[in-house]
Amino acid sequence: MGAIDFANLPHIGESLLRKEDYRFLTGAGQYTDDIVLANMRQAVFVRSPHAHARIVGIDKSAALAAPGVVGVFDGEDVAADKIGGLPCGWLITDTQGQPMKEPPHPILAHGKVRYVGDHVVMVVAETLEQAKNAAELVVVDYEALPAAVDVRDAMKPAATALHDAAPGNHCYKWSIGDQGQVDAAFANAAHVTKIDLINNRLVPNPMEPRAVIGSYNRAGDDYTLYVSNQNPHVERLLLTAFVMGLPEHKVRVIAPDVGGGFGAKIYLYAEDVCLTWAAKKLNCAIKWNCDRSEAFLCDAHGRDHVTHAEMALDKDGKFLAFKVHTDANLGAYLSTFSTAVPTILYATLLAGQYATPQVYVEVDAWFTNTAPVDAYRGAGRPEATYLLERIVSRAAWETGLSQDEIRRRNFITEFPYQTPVALQYDTGDFPQCLQKANELHDIAGLPARKAASAAKGLVRGVGYSSYIEACGLAPSNIAGALGARAGLFECGEVRVHPTGSVTVFTGSHSHGQGHETTFAQVVASRLGMDPSMVDIVHGDTGRVPFGMGTYGSRSISVGGAAIMRALDKIEAKAKKIAAHLMEASDADVEFAGGEFTVKGTDKKVTFGQVALTAYVPHNYPLDKLEPGLNETAFYDPTNFTYPAGTHICEVEIDPNTGVVRVDRFTAVDDFGTIINPMIVEGQVHGGLVQGIGQALMEQCVYDRETGQLVTGSFMDYAMPRADDFPDFTLGHVCTPCTTNPLGTKGCGEAGAIGSPPAVINAVLDALAPLGVKDLDMPASPNRVWTAIQNAKA
Questions:
Q1: CA 196 → CA 119, 162, 385, 389, 734, distances in Å?
Q2: In terms of C-beta density within 10 A (0-12 exposed, 13-18 middle, 19 or more buried), how is residue 164 classed?
Q3: Which of 109, 173, 623, 654 is the most buried (most CB within 10 A)?
């Protein structure tokens, strides 16, 4: 079945209410903290108050003697049991052909602490209160060392090295593109636009903080780990094969209902390993709940790039070449996918939607005394889009073109299109997205709105962003050649029951995306039944055959495609059963709308009849077919998918206070086939809020002198709220993906990718008459007001 045929099936494109919402809205959801096991104890971690220090000594005696305490563990205990450090899942090879620097990442600090919040001691007690009280009794003697939290400080020759294995705090230098060709193009350019910018560090802040329960069963010598996680099979693989040296079948990982992830719950964290390891040592289940303050300290952060870029243009405003140098902050240790974010997931997207003949990108990655940095909603794609779309709008202003015209002149219009930075786009319609966005936004009415704002003493501006992203990371063999240490396929099992209902087991994982509805729509559309007849099971390595989880907007395009392949097998076998029942050749059997028919006759049987026959095989070709109707399929994509679109932001600013108000925002996206428009709309809204939040208010700040986290709570870290936004105007263009059977491209990250540059471009457009030419995110009132005052001076 092709993507066009699939898009025309019943239930595809229907805004069905989410099946899972009933349990969430009625308080029947089950999150990790809701799980209570017998003989369960509570864990608390003693964390480093220093950004960088040697551990001179640890005195655990008072804590061990405290009421209710059953165990106190430090790095020496971990080393004695030969528990490995946390692995990095992506090996980057530098420009000299050498592997990146990969220093150990102990689950409890051993010898040194390297950021505020680093894990030092784990205390386990009968109650949470007892564990907290005992943790206060642990005495750690530190010898403070100089700290560097900013890449611009970490790269200085005088900076103190975090790791012996990484001299100068340098992890790798990596590049892509043809530097010689780019330099030649710049030599012949009519105009060169330059930009320096910072992509601000963010804290993910999912609604549900991380939570872990480690348990051990002596009878089977096996473990069960309950964890708020986005990819339980990957968690199990890393935990067993790379850290604890356990047989994989001896560990079951269950990720129950998960209250948001945004990338921060992809990774194997130290707490996950500590609780699993200690559960056997203490012969009890152990629970740890991350409180919000801990999450600010120790969850993997996002973004944090410092970049210089230049764009070469000809006399007509056509792009000739683009060159970029980025210094990426990796934090104190390598997280699971941290090394891929500023390289494979960033630099390869810097062609954008434009037919720029040559692109050269160079990335230096640095260790700093901060929490590890890894994928956060968009993972490299927002960083790439922000840089590219900022310099494109700046080039427009410098050459006297409008923001939409310079984009229109440079759009890719023929597909497939091979970019100069490795990716090949299969399809798209970038001019149509731009045109539709202009229409929905009412760009023609902008002069009148500007005049109305000016009459009130305000300034108004509009900003554009035409983004493209690469989703559904693939294929595995290419990813492996680029450094991936795992496959990037997905698995789906479709189990048809005797009554005709269906249970699907998927390796994808839902933490708010609505998989239980969307996947049910896919199955119901293929089998001709109501979606209520389909249940979706995910998040349990003991029930799902295998899977790579959910990130990178891969669920429907990769996980859904695996389910489609399993459905192909179901349909093929069901046709053979139906052919037997109707005494026909299976080559003459057709299936549509839940019925099997024989071409040229009025014979038919229902899917329900076939399902029952498969399990009650009285009239059944047992000599040719096994009973039952249960199929599994693995799907490894042949290419990424490429969602794209144009976002337009319009802001109104009060020059006297610096307050920026988003007056209207339009997003036109091409997600290919859309299964459930309501769910897609919700995903876009959420992404827009996070992207606009980064542009206007969110910023994770460390003190450059002390290394202390300044924005350690919501008192100092501003989160966007509903009243910060207008109603969003959304539109869609559809060019179905050509590399998966559904034609889908993914939608979960688009809002967070396209919106930040649109907002900042709008702010700069509004401030241009006041002399402001540049501004980094977030465009907070103080920053905007200060920029206005500096321009006056």
A1: 35, 27, 14, 13, 35
A2: exposed
A3: 109
